[in-house]
Amino acid sequence: MIIRTKYLFALCLLSLFLLTACGQKGPLYLPAPNPESTDTGQK
């Protein structure tokens, strides 16, 4: 039981870390395709 709880706890921490990492990288990588959408908007 203890091993399972530790495994689940580690899994939760890992998922949270991945979510935060994706959240931080998301805004940085999103602007790349944005210029194309803005160009179409200007046209």
TrEMBL record:
Pfam families linked to this entry: LptM_cons (PF13627)
Lipoprotein in keyword set: yes
For this UniProt record, give its keywords in alphabetical order, as a comma-separated list.
Cell outer membrane, Lipoprotein, Membrane, Palmitate, Signal
- List the PROSITE patterns: PROKAR_LIPOPROTEIN
Where is the protein localized? Cell outer membrane
Q: Domain of life here?
A: Bacteria
Q: Does the keyword Lipoprotein apply?
A: yes
How the protein sits in the membrane?
Lipid-anchor
Q: Name one GO cellular component term.
A: cell outer membrane
Where mainly found? Answer: membrane
Q: Which NCBIfam families match?
A: SS_mature_LptM
Instruction: Please report the name of this protein according to its UniProt entry.
Output: Putative small periplasmic lipoprotein
Which source organism? Gynuella sunshinyii YC6258
